[in-house]
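From the shared-data thread, chain only:
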Amino acid sequence: MDEQNDWRDEQIGQTLKRLRGETSIRAVQRLTGVSNAYLSQIEKGTRHPGPKLLRRLASLYGVSVHDLLRKAGYLEREGGETEVDEDTEVERAYQYVLSDPVFRVGTRPRGPLSTESKRFIVELYERYSGKRLLQ
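Structure, as tokens:
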């Protein structure tokens, strides 16, 4: 991709907005099944897209999946095998849940939690709130 060097100083949301170009968010919603509100939040930088959504958007926008995953911080930047870091995705979602003022009511987790425990908490939050944090 020729524009890859332009991506270095952009956040993932800015990159996705630039790639969307003249296509409306509603058109992207129809093609991906992701709400236009969520897409807008991602483009504004208030939400972080998950790897599965980035794969769909890469296909839609005709760009490299690896470029988008790397830009979003899901792939290692060093040589060798690169894999999606699911722990990072779960941790970001978990931190979002912890920052939600509605969630602050009640018992809070104490001490370190495993990735599986964090994923469970995030999935419960998703069911309760109707928001998709893990893709």
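The first helix runs from residue 12 to 20.
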